[in-house]
Amino acid sequence: MVVRLELDVSRDPLRVLESTQPIVEQARLVRIDQQQVQRAAALIEGLPAPTADWDRMLHPISDDPAKLANLVLVVDALNFCFWSLPGSDRPRWQVTYQGTTYDGYAALAVALRRAVEGGYPLWDGDLLGTITEAEVTELLAGDSGSEAIPLLHARMTHLREVGVALVERWDGSFLHAIRAARGSAPRLVAEVLRALPSFRDTAPWG
Questions:
Q1: C-alpha dist (Å) from residue 35 to 18, 20, 44, 133
Q2: What is the Cα 56 distance to its own chain's centre?
Q3: pLDDT tens per residue, range 119-173
Q4: CB atoms closer than 10 angstroms to residue 92
Q5: How far is the C-alpha of 137 from the C-alpha of 155, rounded, in Å?
Q6: Longest C-alpha distance within the chain, in Å?
Q7: Could you give the C-alpha distances from 143 to 52, 57, 146, 195, in angstroms and in order?
Q8: DSSP labels, 134-180
Q9: Where are the domains of the chain?
Q10: Burial, 123: exposed, middle or buried (Cβ in 10 Å; 0-12, 13-18, 19+)?
Q11: Which carries the bigger pLDDT value, residue 78 or residue 14?
């Protein structure tokens, strides 16, 4: 049975709905209950927005908006794949910071915060554009006994890509891209996808 969904593609500036519609329509083992989606959305809409108390504690921060924008971009560029290696008998990559041990995304956040607090200018596009694998290894060093962070070379490549875009496209700060988007998230995403191939999270289907 083929299910056809009525999708409002006029509100789909990045073509997410359009590109996934054939997959959704031909799915046989998974179905989306639209009534329950609407019910859940109504419940969430009525809830107060939570306060992320952990945010400033974990993430690299700066009082300079231009530097902070770059730090956010760096974190996002490295936020992928924290799985353990198949057959490993060691804990997956983890980082202990101020007495608390983190893994996954939280470990990434505190590792970068640790680097900034140690004097490493992670917001500097010139530095990121030529960063070496050895430097990335040091930046993302995990606890003794845990695995190394996966895909280290890919993370180095992503950082270099960010550095080049910061220097050549955004005059040293991602804040310029944010302001140029004029409050439009789709416009900002489109600019990021043009500048940073590593953010193009797509795959062929069919």
A1: 21, 20, 14, 49
A2: 17
A3: 999 999 999 999 999 999 999 999 999 999 999 999 999 999 999 999 999 999 9
A4: 18
A5: 10
A6: 59
A7: 26, 19, 6, 34
A8: HHHHHHT---TTSPPPS-HHHHHHHHHHHHHHHHHTSTT-THHHHHH
A9: 9-45, 55-199
A10: buried
A11: 78
Q: 115 is written with which tokens?
A: 């680097």
Q: CA of 95: how far to CAs of 73, 75, 121, 196, in Å?
A: 21, 15, 20, 27
Compute how many other C-beta atoms are within 10 angstroms of the C-beta atom of residue 197: 10
Please name which of 188, 119, 197 lies closest in space to residue 165, comparing C-alpha atoms: 197
Two tokens at 143? 């606890």
Alpha-carbon span 14 to 184, nearest angstrom = 12
